[in-house]
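Final report, Chapter 2: Outcomes

The project's central promise was a pipeline that accepts a single protein chain and returns its three-dimensional structure in a standardized token representation, suitable for archiving and comparison. That pipeline is now operational. To close this chapter, we reproduce one record exactly as it appears in the project archive, with the input sequence first and the structure output second.
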Amino acid sequence: MGNIIQIIAKYINCCKKVRPPNRSVYINNKHPPGEVYVAEKFPNNRITTSKYTAWNFLFLNLFEQFQRVANFYFLCIAFIEVVIDSPVSPVTSIVPLVFVITVTAIKQGYEDWLRHQADNEVNNRACWVVRNGELREIKSHEIVVGDVLRVQMNHPLPCDLVMMSSHDPDGECYITTANLDGETNLKTFYCVPETRHLQT
């Protein structure tokens, strides 16, 4: 039976594993001389955890709220009471619905504003990067693929990194991943052996 499924999948070409193309990342963004270099488009290092912007808040929030069964139900009841000559005033359905939607929108707007504040704090955190042979202080959202960073002890890592060097002679570094997975134990990471001897 499994053989038949494999043959059918091969025939309709639906289960082919797609390999991503190889990518070259040049350290410190210096491409080799004499080569034609086409800059690859990598995503930026900006962190966004917020759901809304000032432009889409009203529409997205209303869309999300009316996906809830209770809100949609009361909207339908209010619509029927307005359209059909109902013995019950439509105000009895519209006022509570508007109140609930308004309070929920204010609460969600405030929570999203707090997320924007936290995102700005993380994105504007200072970090040190080597550019054109000198150490410069930049904001963490300005980091690009291929940058060489210097991370101080007890400072957060601003992005995914390959550790090239450490002050430890064995090339060890101890990192806690509490902000990712909640685990507070220190994890040991090792430098790349070829660059372990380099120091800044």
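Archive annotation: The chain has a mean pLDDT of 83.
This record, like all others produced under the grant, will remain available to the consortium after the project formally closes.
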